[in-house]
Amino acid sequence: xxxxxxxxxxxxxxxxxxxxxxxxxxxxxxxxxxxxxxxxxxxxxxxxxxxxxxxxxxxxxxxxxxxxxxxxxxxxxxxxxxxxxxxxxxxxxxxxxxxxxxxxxxxxxxxxxxxxxxxxxxxxxxxxxxxxxxxxxxxxxxxxxxxxxxxxxxxxxxxxxxxxxxxxxxxxxxxxxxxxxxxxxxxxxxxxxxxxxxxxxxx
Length: 203
What we know:
6-stranded antiparallel β-sheet, about 200 residues, 4 helices, alpha+beta, 3-stranded antiparallel β-sheet, about 30% helix
């Protein structure tokens, strides 16, 4: 029953759309994120929404010893256009501006430097493409460049051949024989004036 309720919540929150969006970021830049936000309206159909923060201003700080996430950070701008960092730990929310913690209003109106967020964990999760966070295109760019270069050289060779002329010196070749030799990729001719005027073919 609880699983069905959660599935209905996720469906209403368009989780499948957020999965696609996060996956596209992961493929394009090497990592993607999904975040959960509480909906505080009393008449809301679901108690949360799912978002996909952009990797351009979002990152996770991990423990160098255990690899576990310690802090999720988003770089945002306030109403004055000034940069600040919104940070989430397992239990608390912080706002940092110019290297200092900003004051926050607690649920009881108390001004504090940090406050409980009640998410039950860090509300932003990272989905890296691989350990080095390399995008899909970066993984194959060298191979694609080699293929493009090979194809370019091939097309240049074809163009040069199509635009070329075949010059026969001291020999006669009928059209049918010439076309057959072109199909085979070779030309065989004989001199028609003896050894004094040797036959030659040039492209």
